[in-house]
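Sharing a chain and its predicted structure for anyone who wants a worked example. Both blocks are below, sequence first, tokens second.
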Amino acid sequence: MSQQTEFDAIVVGAGFGGIYQLYSLLKLGLSVRAIDAASDVGGTWYWNRYPGAMSDTNSFIYRYSWDKEDLLEYPWPEHYVKQPEVLKYLQHVVEKHDLRKYFLFNTEMRSADFDEDKNVWKIKTKDGTIYTARYVVTALGLLSKRNFPDYPGVHSFKGEMHHTGAFPREYDFRNKRVGVIGSGSTGVQVITALGKPGQVKQLTSFQRSPQYSVPSGDGPVSKEEREKFNQGYKDGSVYDQVFNSLVAFGFDESTIPTFSVSEEERQRIYQENWDKGNGFRFMFGTFCDITYDRAANDAACNFIKSKIKETVKDPEKARKLLPDEPYARRPLCDGGYYQTFNNDHVDVVHLKETPITEFNENGIRTSDGKQHDLDVIILATGFDAMDANYMRVSIKGRNRESLQDHWDKKNGPSTYIGMAVPDFPNWFMITGPMGAFANLPPVIDTQVEWITDAIKAQMERDNEKSVGAGGTAEGKKTIEASQAAEDGWLEGCYKLAAGTLFTEANSWIFGTNIPGKRYAKALTFFFGGLKTYRQIIDKEAQDGYPGFENRAPLAA
């Protein structure tokens, strides 16, 4: 039997976004396939299986909002879900809704070309198969293209070397000397996990930019707490709060300016939120101006620095762990990160003071001449985020213009409402550039539902009596963002970002974590909050999609 290659829609990705988008398009009656290079569902949570990997979002909202039965019944024993639990949850959703038969695993997209004569996309995969589809939705994730640092002699190291984005399923580092390069969210989690007694013989953290991290507040979920959350699911209050908030992390953001209260009250509020835990809570739940007022940011920085000095007993280690930038990266939380450095077998190297000069067969040498002999090097060096996920694939829209060429014209990634690009018809992105800076599952739910409604509206606009075009789409129009709409969205996003301190920190949010990146300090998020984002895209749909154009195929 020959393999079917013509579909109404192709979904690229099998993580949170891809799973829900597949489910939603099938509900429209479309013929759909979801493809992924991995051998199973999970997306980020399939690949990122490093020690200590967990979500930094509370468990009660790190899940889909649309399946009330699952919200009420699916177990989550602790306040934060760990990587194996997230992966198991996504596998459960796929099995529950009988979606597995619609996935093509070990199927990597290599190119996508738009056929203007027929208004269909041709998707070519690694094995040479070409799939055609009227609609394409990419759910590539924010962080999937791994960043490998190009240090001198990096390939000469004779020991084990692993990137956290492709970690071995099984490992045993006991009695081994381990070096961890990087101290972002992943690095903090790896160091906390492996720094515990008995995990490794020696752990050396190589840090270029020490981080601000607060406690996660993780721990068992009591029966009473679970009943409270379930009541919130039943009456709708949980997601009413989430979808009407700024960052969608399940707490009410503060409306109080830092210096509107006394010093004593300010310290009390910091401490209260430190004790509750969660990085986003500390940044957005204490005071409203930490992300845009320098003095307010400094006050928050000083509080966290005081906690670092108080926690880390060795003054020299504490000094090296003190951040020297504003508190303006993606806020982190941890399960005992700073305490880890009180263990004698854990040390820190400050790379701004003593940079890495070379890798050699025995480990790493730094500029002070010190040789760090290692058995294992873990690269917690993050990802070339957002646009790089698309640059590694050849994607060509109208007039054979590539997505890379389109973004080059803008000197960075650009979209309309984070989901569509001019001259790329019937192509939608989940968590594409310029989407909302907020907790990802609620953002994904928001975008998938909007994309699904937009596709449904387009089918109705064509007066289709039935679906199942099988990839031909003869005579049918496309839906694509207008250039004016993209330009306006881009301008608005930059204005919002200009009012924050996020622009001053070197991080993946602006691509400044990658030396020599194609787009220097390019914006990747809409900083107006999820509530505002949802209001904008809802109005776009209610007004009949004024930011979009419809075009018939050339052969029509």
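Comments welcome. The chain has 17 helices and 24 strands.
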